[in-house]
Design brief:
Strand order of the largest sheet: 2-5-1-6-7
Structural class: alpha/beta
Radius of gyration: 16 Å
Strand content: 15-25%
CATH architecture: 3-Layer(aba) Sandwich
Order of helices and strands: EHEHEEHEEHHHEH
Number of strands: 7
Helix content: 40-55%
CATH topology: Rossmann fold
Bound molecules: 2'-deoxyadenosine-5'-diphosphate
Length: 174
């Protein structure tokens, strides 16, 4: 039996913008699988050293890409990561950059336990739209979309839009 073709979706943006919340719900509603790169790296210990400044392990990007490639070629995967230029461009059919107002993001990250430089740098990352710039450098601009992610209504709206997009993609490609 030939498998139906299914799209790969990248959810990216500064930590705290709501990628995981959206990604998991989206996976439930579409039946696509959800992969959190942070969790994948943790499980497989896909690290290459330790960043003393940010007190976190450094991702071994080549191993992450090797680990996922077969699954990505198959299709039907939602990837969640706070970066986007480590992945092969060919993996994704659409890229969403979630955006959150900085006061709101500050509160979310603070309640996650971020303090000091880590908190400031992440909020600055959002203010300077670092991940959006990274996304339009790494992918064709037509497939990169920004989504507001400030309120529960935004979440519902984003879900609805992406579910619709996915259904249309499947119709067009099967
Ligand atoms: P990320 O995976 O981007 O780090 P998350 O999904 O863990 O972010 O969400 C961070 C926090 O913000 C979490 O407490 C849920 C909340 N949140 C996510 N999306 C939201 C939205 N659209 N409106 C309000 N709160 C949201």
């Amino acid at each position: 039996m030939k498998m139906r073709k299914r799209p790969n979706i990248l959810l990216t943006g500064t930590p705290g913008v709501g990628k995981t919340t959206l990604g998991k719900e989206l996976a439930q509603q579409t039946g696509l699988s959800y992969i959190n790169i942070g969790d994948l790296a943790q499980e497989g210990q896909l690290y290459d050293g330790y960043d003393e400044e940010y007190q976190c392990p450094i991702l071994d990007e080549d191993r992450v890409v090797d680990e996922l490639d077969e699954k990505m070629v198959e299709g039907g995967v939602i990837v969640d990561y706070h970066g986007c230029d480590l992945f092969p461009e060919r993996w994704f059919h659409i890229v969403f950059v979630l955006r959150t107002d900085n006061t709101q993001l500050y509160t979310r990250l603070e309640s996650r336990g971020y303090t000091g430089k880590k908190l400031q740098d992440n909020v600055q990352c959002e203010i300077f739209q670092t991940i959006y710039e990274e996304a339009i450098e790494a992918y064709s601009e037509e497939i990169v979309h920004q989504l507001s992610s400030n309120t529960p209504e935004d979440l519902e709206h984003n879900l609805e839009q992406i579910v619709q997009w996915t259904e249309q993609w499947m119709k067009d490609h099967n």
